[in-house]
Amino acid sequence: MRKILLTASPKGIKNSFQKSFDLLVIVIFGLMPLMWLREDCLIAKGDYFPYREINPLRSLTGDIYLWSSHNIGNPNKTNFSIIYESLLLFLRSLGLSAGLVQILLQILFFLGAGLSMYYLSRTVYPKLKLSPLTSSIFYMFNLQVLQSRLVISMAWTYTFLPLLVALLIKIIEATHQGDAKAVKKNISYFAITSAITLPFTSSNPAYVVITLLILIIVLLYYLIAQKQMSSILLNIAKLIPISVLLNLWWMISISNYYLWSPSPFNPQISATAWAWTEARASFLNLFWLNGKWSWRPEYVPYINSYSNPLLILLTFIPFFLAATSLLFKTKKSYFNAYLMLAILALIFLAKGLHEPFSQLNLLLYEYIPGMTMFREPTSKFTMALMPFLALLIGYAVDRIANVKIYKAKRTNLTRILVATFFIIAFIITAYPLMTNPIETKTQQLPFSSYVKIPDYWYQATEWLNGQSCDCKILITPPDDFYQMPYTWGYYGTDDFLERLIQKPIISNYYIYSYKTNLDITLTLQQLYSSIKYNRTTEFRAFLDLLNIKYIFQRNDVYYNFTGRNIISPDEMQIFLTQQPYIQLAQTFGQLDIYEYTEPKPYTYILNPETSQQTAIKIENITTLERTWTFTSFTDIQEWQNATRPNQWQTNYTLTQENTTLKAELWNSTWGWKTIKSPLLPAQYENTYQIQADIKGQNAHKVHIKIAEYNQNKSILTVTYTKYINDGTFNWTQTIFNYEPKNKTTEYLQIQVWHGHETDKPFPNIVWLDNVKIHGQTTILNTTGLDLIFPNTTQNQPATIISYEKTNPTKITATINATQPFILAISEALDQSWTAHINGKQIKPTTLYLCTTGFHINQTGILEVTIEYEPQKWFFYASIISLSTFLTCTAYLAYTHTKTRKTLHKLKQKLTSLLAVY
C-alpha cells in the first residue's frame, strides 16, 4: 500500500517521470551503433572474425563437442559460446544479415551496459537523482570501452558486470533488512545472470577472474561495514552452489581445455614475453583510460584528433570527478573511499611491468598461480575499475550540482545544466571514436574492418563439405604469422576456416594457440617447411601420415604485403603441379583445390611388429652454436672489430664492464647506432634461436635486427626482429627464432640498434650479456614408412569391416581380427580418449608424429567404440545446469505471480477506502 501511495503522490510521479526520461536517453544513446552499419558487409579484423555470425547453426552444432578434429586433433575450447550462438541463431532466423546482426549485438552491448550501470547506481545511491544517468553515460562512452568494440567477450562482460554487482548488493541489503523472500529472489536473479554472463566471458578466463574479483571487492566492504557478517556469509554460501550448478556445463569444458588437457601452455604467452604491451601503461595514461599499446597511427585512424590540447584535458575529467567525490562527507564517504582504493589498486595491476615498481608487479606474475592470464593487464584491469569509477563519477556530479554557492539555492535547472556539462564532456572526449570505432583502416594498414567474403569462398568450401571422403584438408600457402592479409580486404586470423570447412583442416595458425601439443607444433612446422624448401619426399610422407586428400590453395592472399614472407601463388602452383601424385580438382574464383590421388585412410590396421620397425620422427641437426658471456678479451674484441666506433660522427665506444659488453653514446643528433656481432655462418633452410640479456640507461628505442650476407659478405637484407625497451630499464632477456629470408644467404649478424635522434640525457648506455645463437635444421626420418601402408591386406593381423566417425568425440568400428593388432588413427588423440572392446578399456599411445594407436590383444569379430571421456561429463553437467535453471525460473515465476496477486488485493482495498472517504 505504501508503494502505491508513493507512486500516486506528486513526488512519486516526478520520480517516475525522471526515471522514464533517463531510460529514454540511455535508449537513444544505445542506438548509436546504427551509425556503423554498412549493408552487405561483415565487421572483421585481426583476432575477431565473425565466423559464428555467418552460420550460427553450424557453429552451435560443432561447439557442443569438447574435441576438435581440426589441426590434427585438439581439445575444443569454443563450447563457452553456446548461449551466444543461440542468440545469433534466433536473430539470423528472422532473416537478418550477418552484418546487421553484428550491429544489433553492439546495440545490445551499449544498452545493456547503460541499463546495467543505471541499476547499479540506483542501488548504491538510491537518493541521488543525477547519479544514475551520469554514471550510465560515462560507462557507455569512454575511451576504454569504445576502443574495445571488436573484442566481443570483453563487451559481453562489460555489459553484465554492473548488474551482477547490483544484485550482490541487493542480496546483502535484503539480508540486513531480514527480508528472506527478497534474498531468495535476488539469489535466483544473480545465479541466472551469472549463467548468461560467465559462459561467453570465459572465452578469455581472465574476464571470469576479473568478474569474481570485482564481486569479492564489493563483498569485502559489506562484510567489514555490516555487523551481520554471519548472515551475509550464510546467504553467500547459498548463492555459490546455485551459481556453480547453473554454470557447471561451461566450467567443465573450460576446465577440460585449460586444466585437464595434457597440452602445455604456449611459452609465448608469459608475462615477460608480452611486456611490450605495457609500453604505454604509465600512470598518466591510465588516468585518462588509455594505456593500450595499440594507440599508434597504424592501428588508430582517429589518433590525430587527440592532439588537440582541450580534448586531452577533457580526458582527465573522469578521474578528476572520481577524486572530487572524496571531498563530500556523507553516509557514503567510507564507501567512496573504499572504491577509490580499489581503483588505485586496479590501476597498479593495469600498469603491469611498466615502471615504476615493475619488480613488484613481476613478483605477482611469478608467485600467483594463473596470473599469466593477465599477460596484457592494461585492457583487463582498466575494464575492471570502470564500474567503480562510474559510480564515483555519478556521485560527484550529483554532489557538485547540489553545492550551494554564497547561500544561493540551487534550482533544478542549474542542477540539470551541471550534469549536462559533464555528460557533454564525456561525449566530446569519446566523439572521435563514437563516429565509428569499428573502422580501423589506416594508411599503414590499409585494410578496412568492413569486408565482404567473395562468393567463390562459399562455393569452394561447400564443394569440399560435399565430398564423401573421411579425410583432411591442407591449407596453403603456409601462414608466416597467425593473421593473413587477403586481396579482398580482410586482414586477420585464419580460424574462420574451421567454420566454413566442416572437414578437418590442417593449418599452422594453430601454433599460436593458448595451449599447444608439441608433437603437433613440430609436425606443422616441418610440413610447411617441406613446402617452403621444396622437400618433395617429406611432403608426400606428410600427406600419407596425416590423412590429407585435398589441398586448399588460396591465391587471393596478399602475399607481397610489406613485412610478410608468404609464398606467392605462382610458386605454390609450380610446387603442387610438379608432384605427379597431385592433380587440380576444382577452381573457384581465386581458390584452387588440388587432390592427392593416392590418399591414405583415416584409420587402419598396423602389425605390432611393423610398428617396431618404423622410426618415423622429426630429427634436429645442430648447425651452429655460439655464446658470448663477455668474460674474456676475445669476446669483447670480436664485437669491437665488427662494430664501427664513433658512428655518425659521435662519441661512441664499446668496452667491457663487469663481464658485460657496454656501448656508451655521448653525443648524437642523427642516425641509428648499431652494436654488431661478428659474421656467423648460416644457411637458408636453417632456423636460428637467438638469446640475449640487455639493459639500458637513458637508452633510446633499443631493438634487434638480423642482417644477412651472401658468400662475398655483401649485405642482402636487414630484418627488424625484436623491440627491447626505451629509457632506463633493468636486465631484459629476449629469445626469438629467425629464419633467413634469402636463398643465397651464407652469413648472419646480430645487430642491436638504438640512439637515433635520441631525446634522452647523455650518456646513452646499453649493456649486453649472455648472447647465444643456436642454429639447427630439421629433417623427417621416414624409416619404415613403406611398411605402414602395404599394397595388400594379406598377412594382416586384422581387417576393418566398417567404421564410422559418429561425431568429433566418438568413433565406432567393426574389426575381424586373427591375431593381436594396433588400430591406428591419423589424429593426435590424448589420454582422455578410451577404446571400449568387450568390456575392456584401452588407452591410446603415440605411434609416430601425430598418429595414435590402440594396442588390442583380442581376436574375432570385435565391436570397438572409441570415445572422448570428458564429453560425458559435459552432457551430465549440462543436464544439471538446465535443471537448475528451470527450477530457478519456476521459483521466480511463482514468486512474481504471488506478488502480483498481493498487490492487486492491496489496490482493491485502497480503492474501497478512497471511495468511503
Describe the structure.
This protein is α+β, with helices and mostly antiparallel strands and 917 residues long. Among the domains are: 450-603, Rossmann fold (3-Layer(aba) Sandwich), CATH 3.40.50; 621-782, Galactose-binding domain-like (Jelly Rolls, Sandwich); 789-868, Immunoglobulin-like. 44% of the residues lie in helices and 22% in strands. It has 28 helices and 29 strands. Strands 13, 14, 15, 16, 17, 18, 19, 20 and 21 form a nine-stranded antiparallel sheet that branches. Strands 8-5-9-11-10 form a five-stranded mixed sheet. It is globular, with a radius of gyration of 32 Å. 42% of the residues are buried.
Question: Which tags fit this structure?
Answer:
Jelly Rolls, nine-stranded antiparallel beta sheet, 28 helices, 917 residues, Rossmann fold, alpha+beta, Immunoglobulin-like, single chain, disordered N terminus, five-stranded mixed beta sheet, 44% helix
